[in-house]
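Suppose a colleague, Dr. K., hands you the sequence of a protein chain of 351 amino acids and asks what its three-dimensional shape might be. Before reaching for any lab equipment, you can write down a predicted structure in C-alpha cell form. Begin with the sequence itself:
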Amino acid sequence: MSQDELIERYIYAVTTHLPQTMQKDVEKELDSIIGDMLQARCAHDTPELKDVEAVLLELGSPALLAGKYCGHKDQALISGIYYLWFKRLAIILVPLFSAAFAIGSFVIELIQLSSINQYGNFSESLFTAIFTAGIPGLLNGVIHGFFWLILIFFVLQHRSTAIDKQDFLDKLAPVPAKQMRIKLYEPILNIGLVLLFAIVFLTVPLLVGFPADNSGWIFAFNNDHIRAGWFLVLLVALAGITKEVFKLYKRRYCLPVAISTCLVNAVIVIGMGFLLLKPNIINLAFGTALRVILQNQNQTMTTITNHINGILFTVILFGALLDSGLTLYRTLHDSHKSAKLIPTVQPTKTA
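The predicted structure, expressed as C-alpha cells, is then:
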C-alpha cells in the first residue's frame, strides 16, 4: 500500500461517520494536519511508509478521532463514534417504538371497551382509551426504545476497549467510489421499518384491519395463527436487521454485502411464505367487509379478497428479488469503475 492510499483510507475512515455537513472541512483539516506532522517528523527527508504509519498512530484510531471532532468525551456512558450512531438511530427508532406502543395500546383498549359496551357512546370510549392506554403506551415506548439502545451501545463501546488500538491501520478499508457508497439513511430507515413490522405482529397484530359500521373492528389476520407463528416473525425481523446492520458496517456495495443481501432476502421470503401462506391466516370476515366497502361483489373481487395473503407474499417476493438484483447490479457493474475514479481526498505532497 502506498503512503497516499494509506492516508486516504485513514481520512475516509474518520469522515465517513461524521455528519455530512462536517465531512469536507474535516477532510481538508486532517489532510493539512497529516502533511504538517510528516514535515515536522521528516524535516527535509522524503517521508516513508513507516513515517506515515507513525503519524496516523499518533493521531489515534479513526473512531476515537471522529468522536473528538464532534466534541464527545470518552468518559461518558456512551461516547465517541458510538454516541454518533446512538443519536442517529435514536432519532428514528425511539419515535417508532413510541408510536407502535401508543397506537397498539390505544387500539386494544378501544376494542375491549367497545366489545364489552362499558360506556354509552364511542366518543367517551375514545377519550378513555387515549388517557388509560394511549398516553401510557407512548411513555412505555420511549422508555423501552432508549433502554435497549443505551444497553446495546454501552456493550458495544465497552467491548471495544479490549481491542488493541494499535491494529486499526491493518483494518482500514479502501476508499469506495461515490456510486458504491451506501447512504447512511437507507439502512437506518430500513431497520426502523423492520422493527415496526416486528412490534406490530408480535405485540398488536389486531392493529391490522379497519372499523366497520355494524361489526366493530374487523381484523385482517386471524390472531391465533399470527401468535402461533411468532418465531417466524422474529426470524424475519432478525434477518432484516442483520442485513441492514451489515450494510451500516460496510458502508459500501461490495461482494460480501451482495451475498449477505441475497441470502438474507431468501430467509425473509421463506419465513414470510411459511407465515402468510398458512391456511386460514386471513380473516374471512375481513374480505367480506372489504367487498362491502368497495361495493363490489363480483367473482374477480371475491377471488382477490380471498387471496390477500398470496398477494402480500407476492409483493414481498418481488421486493426481495428487486433488492437483491439492484444490490448485485451495483456491486458487479460498478466495481470495475472504482479504480478509475479520482480519489475523494487528495493528500498534500510533502517534500
